[in-house]
Amino acid sequence: MKIAVLGTGYVGLSTGVCLSEIGHHVTCIDINKEKIEDLSQGILPIYEPGLEALLDSNIAAGRLRFTTSHREGLKDKDIIIIAVGTPQREDGASDLSYLEQAARDISRYIVERSIIVIKSTVPVGTNEFIKKMIEKECGFPIQIISNPEFLRQGSAIHDTMNADRIIIGHDNKEAAMKIQEMYRPLNVPILLTSIRSAEMIKFASNVFLATKISFINEIANFCQAVGANIEDVALGMGKDKRIGEAFLKAGIGYGGSCFPKDVEALLHTANLYGINLALLKETIRINKSQKELLVKKALHRFGELTGKKIAMLGLAFKPETDDMREAPSINIARSLTKLGAEVVAYDPVAIKNAKGILGDNILFVNAVEEAIWNADALFIVTEWKEFLQLDLPNVLKKMKHPIIFDGRNCFKEDQIRACEFVEYYSIGRPDMIIGME
Ligand code: UGA
């Protein structure tokens, strides 16, 4: 099939690349000239494992192209996928301005047989609104499909090629069949729903996962108070198939470009309908407080943090991405510096983006060794593989004080016991003080 994808962010790019990989002819369109020039040469604007190889091979095979021209990109396409961003507005609502612009661009070049697919995360009712907008401008009836995306950054290709489900929200059977046909080579279960249900499935899924994380974080804090171990508790709970093991990892709160924004956006929509989503308000409150937890633990341990050198390992909101949006590291770095601490941070890929947000407030270094040298304490903020494999006894020797605040529970009890001297504070597990009694 001949497919156009509007928007080359995580979702647009991964979708375009994967659809070309399964044999379609895909043209990706973006207004950012520099980005399109880079992509045409196989240069990625983001860090996403596995994406570059597929980008290269599909460009070489002639199935994947990039353009800034809507005329060229939209001409004569069977399917037009909209994957532009819907960022958060000041009031928490989704900003639909990129989507509206995409609709205007499409209406100038769309032909009657083209089906429009909205992948961007949009509030209930948006697909219908965009359909009317395009029909008014182009002057003929069009078919629209709500096809929300469930891929995660850091595993975008895997998640697209091996999705748990594909949701096709439609009001026209023939159009739905065409989209089903487009995805057929993926061999993934497909669920046909109404357009409004599809829009809601995306939000309900994301806010459920965010709530699952806030739930486990709250239980973790409770475990800490009563001497239980959240890792064992989560494992024991997760074995129950009704609960499931995924997304029960306690930590320092969820971040990224999706959960924080989508929880706020759903609350905003609910408000418009006079619905009180009380549980979601707690999800947000718990998450905010969880982002401060490591600093609170350090304050409790040290009394004050003025003049303390804190080594911070990890900046990205999660491993395998350079994305800093809503990363807990931002809150932690700002709180620490406000309290007079000196923060020296290292991340394998996110330093460039972190500099744009944290500026000169903290020092950025290029290796773990530089960060930990002479540090009063070590904060582990992102669970990069590189940090899970640290030679802890060696790390601790290089620090001024062997004190670790682990926000991601990277180490097991026996790894800590194997250290000669250490104070180890983690999330929802008993504190461990070794060799210093
Ligand atoms: C999330 C969803 O998982 C995707 O299904 C969805 O498509 C995407 O949002 C989106 O709407 O575009 P993503 O934000 O890439 O994906 O990252 P996740 O892997 O879901 O992690 C989000 C945050 O939750 C991270 O800060 C992570 O550290 C945290 N998390 C995740 C936990 O604290 N504990 C867990 O058990 C899992």
Overview of the molecule:
With 437 residues, the chain is an alpha/beta fold. The protein folds into three domains: 2-193, Rossmann fold (3-Layer(aba) Sandwich); 202-289, Orthogonal Bundle (N-(1-d-carboxylethyl)-l-norvaline Dehydrogenase, domain 2), CATH 1.10.1040.10; 291-434, NAD(P)-binding Rossmann-like Domain (Rossmann fold, 3-Layer(aba) Sandwich). Helices cover 45% and strands 14% of the residues. The protein has 19 helices and 15 strands. The strands form three sheets. Strands 11-10-9-12-13-14-15 form a seven-stranded mixed beta sheet. The chain has a six-stranded parallel beta sheet with strand order 3-2-1-4-5-6, sandwiched between helices. Strand 5 (115-118), helix 6 (126-138) and strand 6 form a beta-alpha-beta unit. Helix 9 crosses helix 11 and helix 11 runs antiparallel to helix 12. The longest helix is centred in the middle third of the chain and has 32 residues, at 195-226. The radius of gyration is 24 Å and the shape is elongated. The relative contact order is 0.09. It binds uridine-5'-diphosphate-glucuronic acid. Uridine-5'-diphosphate-glucuronic acid binds at residues 121, 149-153, 206, 209, 213, 247-249, 251, 254-256, 258-259, 317-318.
